Amino acid sequence: MSISRRSVRILGVASASAALALGFAGNALACNISEFSAEAVCDGTNGVIHVTDKDASGTPAVITVFLESNGADAKQVGKPTEVKGSAEGVTVTFAEDWQPDAKYRVHVKAGNQVDEDLKELLTTPSKACDTEESPSPTPTEASPTPSETASTPAESDTPTPSASESSSTAPATTTDNAPSPAAGSSNLAETGANSNTGMIAGIAGAFVVAGGGAVYYGMRRRGATNGR
Questions:
Q1: Residue 37 to residues 9, 40, 48, 112: CA-CA distances in angstroms?
Q2: Do the bridges between strand 114-117 and strand 122-123 make them parallel or antiparallel, or are there none, so unpaired?
Q3: What is the pLDDT of residue 66?
Q4: Res 124 pLDDT > 80
Q5: For residue 46, what are the CA distances in angstroms to 21, 112, 149?
Q6: d(C-alpha 43, C-alpha 95), whole Å
Q7: Average confidence (pLDDT) over 101-123
Q8: 158 secondary structure, DSSP code
């Protein structure tokens, strides 16, 4: 059975269409650098860099981020991180305390399909992340100065005797060894009062008076006798 030219033409067109369709499908499923994006945001008070992979084929890719300075890599941010994308997108995060208007280079390595940087450098926002406000210190009560402390009298357990108590207290008795002039005069007074000197002196006086009288009487009597 012979094949007509028309049939051959139809088969050729169908084969070309199928190849073209397969080519489009293959390109649609292949990993592409355009499916990756990056942004710098704030996570609370800390800066971070998000890289999102929207590769529908789910080809594993390794993301590496570099800080740029004067057209060269200043440092690598963190470690290279692997991501397996999806049509909805899968995001990996790099902790980075970025400064305003800083620039970062994002490199993607996905098997043999992609090994290049994002088309444009990542530029951070012109405003840094807000820092936490430190709480103001609570004022403390001032401690008393040394002069105030010294002026406060310390309480004593022993009560201070009053003036009336001190005046009514009898003086302490002196020791026996201390000489006392009053004691000597007191002994002399007691000696005179208790002796018989007064009585003897009185008797002697009486004798003197009696003797004197006897002498006077004798002299008068002698004079009267001589007169006769």
A1: 46, 11, 14, 20
A2: unpaired
A3: 98
A4: yes
A5: 48, 35, 50
A6: 9
A7: 96
A8: S
Question: For residue 218, is pLDDT > 50?
Answer: yes
Under DSSP, is residue 67 helix (H, G, I), strand (E, B) or coil? strand
Interatomic CA distance for residues 116 and 188, integer angstroms = 138
Task: Return the pLDDT at 195.
Answer: 56
Domains and CATH numbers, the chain: 31-123 (2.60.40.2420)
Q: What is the pLDDT of residue 46?
A: 93
Structure tokens at 98: 């970025």
For residue 95, the cross-strand partners are 48
Q: Compute the distance between CA of residue 45 and CA of residue 103 in angstroms, rounded to an integer.
A: 20
pLDDT band, very low/low/confident/very high, at 21 (cuts 50, 70, 90): very low
CB 38 within 8 Å of CB 106: yes
Q: How far apart are CA 40 and CA 93, in angstroms?
A: 10
| Residue 110 β-bridge partners | 114
Tokens coding 71: 């057209």
Question: Cα–Cα distance between 54 and 110 in angstroms, integer?
Answer: 13
Contact 115, 42 (CB under 8 A): no
Q: What is the pLDDT of residues 32-85, one digit of tens each?
A: 999 999 999 999 899 999 999 999 999 999 999 999 999 999 999 999 999 999
Position with higher pLDDT, 199 vs 157: 199
- Taken in order 24, 28, 30, 32, is the CA torsion positive or negative? positive
d(CA 110, CA 25): 19
**DSSP state letter for 70:** T
Distance CA 27, CA 39 (A): 27
